[in-house]
Amino acid sequence: MILENIRDSRTFFACGLTCKVLAARAKRTQEDLIRPYGTLRENYYEYLDMYRLRRHLSTVPLVGHFLKEASIPAQSIPKFACEFSGKLPGLRKLHIGGTKDAISLLRRTPSLAALPRFRGVVELILVDVVFWSFADLARLVCAFPSLVRLILDRVTWQRGEGRSLACEPYARSLNLHDIQVCTSFVRCYVRLCDNSRLGY
Question: Residue 52 has what pLDDT?
Answer without folding.
Answer: 92
